[in-house]
Amino acid sequence: MLLDTLIEVSRIASAWAVPLLVLGILIAAGRARVPVYESFIVGAKEGFAVAISIIPYLVAMLVVIKVFTASGLFADIKWVLSGLLQMLGLPQFSETIELLPLALTRPLSGSGARGVLIEIYESHGPDSLVGRTASIMMGSTETTFYILTVYFGSVGIKKLRHTLPACLIADAVGIAAAVVVGAILFG
Amino acid sequence: VLNRVWFWLFVVGLVYGMGRAVVHPLIVDPPSTTSDVVAGDTVANGDGDSVADDPQATVATSFADVGTQLTNAMIDASRSAVEICIGLIGIMVLWLGLLQIAQDAGLVDLLARWLRPLIRWLFPGIPDGHPAQGAVLLNLSANMLGLENAATPMGLKAMHELQRLNTTPDTATNSMAMFLAINTSNVTLVPIAVIGYRAKYGSEAPAEPLFGTLVVTLLATIAAVVACRVLEQLPRYRTTIDDNSLAKES
Known about the structure:
The structure holds two protein chains of two kinds.
Chain A: H1 2-31, H2 36-53, H3 55-70, H4 73-87, H5 94-97, H6 100-105, H7 110-124, H8 129-140, H9 144-155, H10 163-186
Helix pairs in contact in A: 3-9, 7-8, 8-10
Chain B: H1 2-23, H2 63-104, H3 107-114, H4 116-122, H5 131-144, H6 148-164, H7 174-184, H8 192-200, H9 210-231, H10 242-249
């Protein structure tokens, strides 16, 4: 199948991207007569300090997110909503509600979202409408809070201004688009 | 904003967990009743917290269990946060070293020159020829190709360069907000991880969401750019010295 060949090609390309990139950098550096070893050390020295300086920010953020997801709030919201839909006689939407915990967990926690995704695969199958839509949702959004914490933490910025609302708007658009695109492609 | 978000997430999480523990035994039909995930899930991965903490499975039975569970959640999370950072050191050192070579060889500037019109339009606050242009581009392209290991060091390098243009060191600039909004909604060519999970759970066409993901991420990225452009104009997000710093930046 065409799609499978495409995937195979992109998987190989992705596996070799880093080695080829490094080779390319080295060749270009050799041609430009850069002292490669010294240059590497100069850049690499920054790495240690940056990684360590993120720790307090990441601990603060991950602890609160873990407590929040462990409280069971998202599972309950889904449970209440699907009960409501049953009562209103709209059971055809109750499948879509299965996606709600994934949509809510995704910006907060990467591994939490993975847990929800795998649970959807196990209960509905990866090739069901819910499973396919969940795949799109998972693949097209990022762990926003983790990224904001690490990136801003590394330079010590504490006032984010409009960054968080802008990121959350983009996430909301992505999640809504995933549901719509899933329904159009697979519905 | 961050203070309030942090406070409310924490308080709501704790209070809700407590309330749930009180109410839960009284409800007849709980969503799920497995409670065997409390201990031993501290394996760090590059993307957040420990493995195996899906919210469905964390429904505990007794009041004391829930307390233990919340305590463990906090301790586990703090431990895995440190493990993630320690795990980052090696990758950071490697990639920042390689990036320095690329920069000294003039490759980063070359890349920035090719895509100059795009980057000028997205980040008017970065002056032409500044190393931030190249670093931002490198991070966004690594993200696009799904090279997660390379993306984080390049992104942190980009933040560092953007911070050097910042006249108010504790406050985010427009360029930073735009960079992160695009980064978190980034156009994805190959969602490798999701394809892997689908194959593992017996999908007949693991690569099926490829096209859908591309469309959705395109839409989300457009939304991110528009949201940034609109929000940065709002009075409540304008910095007091904005015009000054913009003039200096551009």
